[in-house]
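Minutes, project huddle
Topic: does the predicted pose make sense with D-glutamic acid bound?
PN asked that the exact inputs be recorded in the minutes so nobody has to dig through chat later. Recorded below.
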Amino acid sequence: MLPIGLFDSGVGGLTILREIARALPYENLIYFGDTARLPLGDKSPDAIVRFTLENAKFLMRQNIKLLIVACHTACSHAMEILEHLLPIPVLGVMAPGISDLLAATKSKRVALLGTAATIASGVFQTQLQTLQVYPIACPLFVPLTEEGLQNHPVAAYIAKYYLSPLQGAGIDAALLACTHYPLLSAVIQQTVGPEVQLIEPACSTAQEVFHCLNRHNLLNPKNTIPEIRFFVSGDPEKFRRLAKMFFPFPIKKVQLA
Ligand code: DGL
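Predicted holo structure (tokens), as shared on screen:
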């Protein structure tokens, strides 16, 4: 059965992949991390669109049946273009995160944490107009996680630096609008306090994937052990070492794309 393809700039999209692998245990999966061009979130809108299309094309060449854009930066700049261009279904991480956030907040005051490009795009803010949104770009969070420093004291220091404007803002939820950020959720939670619920889109995205495959009659009918394949554009060994720290399934091989 054809695989599902996912991409991100690095290990962040694995937070989506691990939920999909749990929720859909018979689906073959292909993950592509465009690590040679990471971080994506500090690039220009044109470059983000170009890299996103190239990443999608790479996965299309692997003959995937569904594309998941496991990157908020790519979603906020290129989702409509991908949906228009590709002959297969395309799902992103934006809509699931937004609906979870809307369901979670009672105070209607929320934080939106994302890359500089995601925040600057204004796409999330437009869809959250019924709420009081505090958008904060946290550009150092991605390199921190890509260096495996999520539990290092420097992570707490940087989180405090970025998130201090939220003090006293009365927020009760924060959307982690970057797939790398759930890897820092312990330190983010500590910084914003226990009254703030952190929202990440992984579980809802996995449910969306199930419904989409079901609707298109694309679910794998065989209960066989699936294959999960990994490709990167940068250093395969660095990716494998890092991914092993939190990805709950074996990663035998990472290939250079
Ligand atoms: N993980 C990506 C996202 O969700 C982008 C990280 C990066 O800046 O490369 O936005």
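Observations noted during the meeting:
- The chain has eleven helices and ten strands.
- Residues 18 and 249 are 8 Å apart (CA to CA).
No decisions taken; revisit at the next huddle.
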